[in-house]
Amino acid sequence: MMRRLFVVLFVAVAVAAGFVLHDRLQRTPATTPPQEQAAPAPAPQAPASLVPAEAPASPPAAQADAAPVPALAAPDIPPVVDGRILAKLPNGLTVLIQEDHRFPLVAQRLYVRAGSAYETPGQEGLSHLLEHMAFNSTGKRPKGGAARDIEAAGGDANAATSFDYTQYMANLPAAAWKMGLDVLQDMVWNAAFNPEELEQEKKVVIAELERGQDEPGQRLFQMSQAQVWKGMGYAHPIIGTRETVQAATPESLRAYVRRLYQPQSMLLVVVGDVDAREAYSEAARLFGTQANDRDALPPPTADMPPNAAGPTSNAAALDLRKASLRLSFAVPGMHSAKDGPLEVLCDILGGGRTSRLHRKLVYDLQLADSVSVGAITLERGGMLSVDATLDPAKLPEFWRALVTELAALKASDFTAEEMDRARLGIEDSLLRARETLSGLASKLAYYHFFGFGDPGEANAVYAVRNTDPAELQGLIDTYLNPANASLSLLLPGKDQGEAREAAQRFVAALAAAWPKPAPAAAKDPDAKSTGVEVIELGQGRTLVLLPDPTMPYASVALSWRGGDALLTPGQQGLGELTAKALTRSTLKRSTHQLEDDLADRAASLAATSGRDGFTVSASYPARFSKDVLEILAEAILEPAFAPDEIERAAKLQLAQIAQAQDRPMSLAFRHLFPYLYPGSHYGYLRAGTPEAVAAFTPEDARAYWEAQRALPWTMAVCGVFDRQEILELAQRIGATPATAAPGFTQPAWTGEKQLALNLPGRNQTHILRVYPVPGRTSPDSPALELLKTALAGQGGLLFKDLRDNQGLGYSVTAFLWQAQETGFLAFYIGTTPEKRQQALDGFDRIARDIAAQPLPLELLQRAMNSLEGDYYQDRQSLSSRSHEAAGNLAFGLPLDYERELLAKARQLGPEDVRKLAAQVLDPEKARLLVIEP
């Protein structure tokens, strides 16, 4: 499964179609860099590198024990080895406790062998609906109580339904770990299945289903799974259909639980700042009393054979600007010895900008906006897919080029550099998953739940390291052929018959065009620092050193003020274009050389332009620091801005603009700021207009970058680094004189009460009720954070009222955006058109209530705990901490700005928040953005 385990299986499938994540509404991503914290102590169990074990590359599937093992009395707690306990409770439930004291946090996972592939005909979607109902009433808690209890402690509770399993998750401060386990136990075994709550939740799920139909990625995946996995339990959408969801009853849910929620089919994982013996004892107390009443064994895991009746196709016409396609092939599942080689093949073909198909079809021929290749491998089978988004007019030429590339594919043509790059990237992804406690918990849960055990990761690396061209050619010959191919196609337009005919023409050409197949040593830094350092370099330039020896990686970020503030109205989009082009090539390295040099070192280089700032960053294994820091310096000091690269960056930006017209929330945010802040750089279209972007020249980008680069900056590095090496880099970048940073003034709030947008052919209406608020430097910021957090989340006022009580939509939340001198607080819901007014009435009623009456103390405490929990959750990665430190100092804020904000928020009471709400939730200043289908 390799890196797909944590990215594809848990994210791509979730978002791309049917693997449904029942998540509390995510808080808006931080629009300000997160705050620095002192470097944590290294976890004693964190290894510096992966060492392959001499074990089979495809371990056998785990088998549930038919006979219970003897009960363990308290004194017989299993021994703690390297901070870990791994044992079965008497009822067969497996418990894995892993101590990790890097952060005062804990990540808890409960896996159940119950997913959509276990549903019988007529039950489609029941696994997902059940997971929803676990967040309703339970034996111990009222509706929404599980999530509220976790959030009140400063954590978050989520769940996800997959094909082969359902996962319940809690991430929370370590002090609340016992409560987290109690909540998980209550959710999985004590769900009440109240009939009224079930009817309400059906409305929510159906709204979620309709929302998914508006997303091209989800439509494509569902079309593909029905073709590739025809006749299997994987063929139907995890969320089910409107009819099967409506047919569910409390008794059908209880029967499903009785059949599949057996202790022997469960795994509990606890990772974090806990005592392993104490955590195991509590897990045994809570989860050890439930008995099995039948055997529950995993399904057979023999290799899934390729389909032989293809090629097949399916297509749909939608109101889109871009065409999207997925060419899929049936492949074996996760337990096959072919899993590792499949990952290598996918990486070489379409794993990034250095991959073969990207370079040929996107870069060289410029026939597509994006092309990627990935594989989803499940217990009973898998699917390898080529995904592309492109202009409809280029589709015939793109298809011919794609088929030509695949038909001529020979593993003997893969270079040693391509093979090594793929191997390194996969191994690097596995290691980076340990950076956060949640990533480590998910990794441990996966390997143990699916039977790979402790050697699983090392075996995966061993399989990848030892993949050779002969194995890859075997995969190409066996699986990448027309008989095993399925095409899913989405075309702009309304003629469904024409779309299906186009897909049939494409697959008909396959057989004719596609003949049948006949590391450098790690460097020991000369000097190491043990504490945070802030070094003033002069001219407004600052260096921040944040050593963290936990992982053998480093992250560097440089932040400037400026961004769109340096542009004129006619230059809207130039900052975005410059950021895209900046990291594409330098005067010393072509695009391909730069991409290869980064990929060969498992490193990344990025540039982002914001409304009032600009950031360049790099992340890399510490052993490659010299090489990557040289690339970073070249990108900043010697960018090429070659005409052909500016042209390609412009095409990507034009595609970005076009794709935003197809996605409701992208469309909303593209137009939200111009609507709210007319006449100000905050109101610029970040990606610009098609006409302006097409007219930008290399000279425009170079002039903008020279002005931006000359401004004062802050550089922050977090991780393992050579202090002198970083200092020399900072001095080199800061060798030229600095100019004064632009001033920032508070922009005027729009006088227009409403902006209505239209996105035809969709199911939902999207509503944003927006209120102006002060900027980040305002003394009201702590109260604003509390107010926003009290509104958002599953325990928040908006969710409880509009979703839980009224069933108006699946996505309901609030988010806060703040720049230095301005900001806004927004209420959001996605609902059906006929419920628009009811949702607006709900927004307005809640705003009136919290402005008139103080929040309950319990709700305010939940918000405070949630802020504190997020503070640590958001700062686990090295990248988050380097970006936070660089951004804070660049904008004149204290290094510990977020920590200071939390301290101030703790001093506030319900009346303080009410006064602020009365001030900012002014109906006369409220503005409305609506997207109608």
TrEMBL record:
Coiled coil: none annotated. Keywords: Hydrolase, Protease. It is an enzyme of class 3 (hydrolase). InterPro entries: Metalloenz_LuxS/M16 (IPR011249), MPP/UQCRC_Complex (IPR050361), Pept_M16_N (IPR011765), Pept_M16_Zn_BS (IPR001431), Peptidase_M16_C (IPR007863). Its EC number is 3.4.24.-. Residues 95-241, 546-675 form the Peptidase M16 N-terminal domain. Its cofactor is Zn(2+). Residues 30-67, 292-313 are annotated as: Disordered. GO terms for biological process: proteolysis. Residues 248-423, 714-867 form the Peptidase M16 C-terminal domain. Pfam families: Peptidase_M16, Peptidase_M16_C. GO terms for molecular function: metal ion binding; metalloendopeptidase activity. Belongs to the peptidase M16 family. This is Putative zinc protease.
